[in-house]
Specification:
Helix content is about 60%, strand content about 10%. It is an alpha/beta fold. It has one domain: Rossmann fold (3-Layer(aba) Sandwich), CATH 3.40.50. A 5-stranded parallel β-sheet has the order 3-2-1-4-5. Helix 1 crosses helix 2 and helix 5 packs across helix 6. The radius of gyration is 14 Å and the shape is globular.
């Protein structure tokens, strides 16, 4: 399966976040090609930083989690190739451009967007799907 992957799907997997952990584990077993706008890397690093800062994750594990993320094989796509259409989607939907960049990438590649973001799932139901609905196909 090929999919665009929202940062929350990566973060919940790496950080072992309940109640999402089993769902993301199953997703990562089935995904073959994963794509994301390049800013997913900064978003993930920020989530790891926050996990360390709040004591959820020991400091020395932060770098290990980023190393693991790099081994997931997510192909990063430059935002510049997406931002015009992502801005239009954001203006039309009220969703943030950070989020519509993922939606636009999925639309351009004609693949689903795996996400837990309720707002995106609601506003873009034809594109955005929960990981469990993708890994069960």
């Amino acid at each position: 399966m090929t999919a665009v992957v929202d940062t929350n799907v990566v973060a919940y997997y790496l950080l072992g976040t309940e109640p999402f952990l089993e769902e993301v584990r199953q997703f990562w077993r089935t995904v073959e090609d994963a794509w994301a706008p390049v800013h997913w890397e900064a978003e993930l690093a920020n989530a790891v930083w926050m996990a360390v800062r709040t004591g959820v994750l020991p400091r020395d594990e932060g770098h290990q989690k980023l190393d693991l993320a790099g081994r997931l094989g997510i192909q990063s796509v430059p935002n510049r190739s997406l931002w015009q259409s992502a801005l239009t989607r954001a203006l039309d939907s009220g969703a943030a451009v950070y989020d519509t960049l993922f939606v636009e990438l999925a639309a351009q590649r004609n693949v689903p967007l795996a996400t837990f973001d309720r707002n995106i799932l609601k506003k873009f139901p034809e594109i955005a799907k929960r990981p469990s609905s993708l890994s069960s196909n």
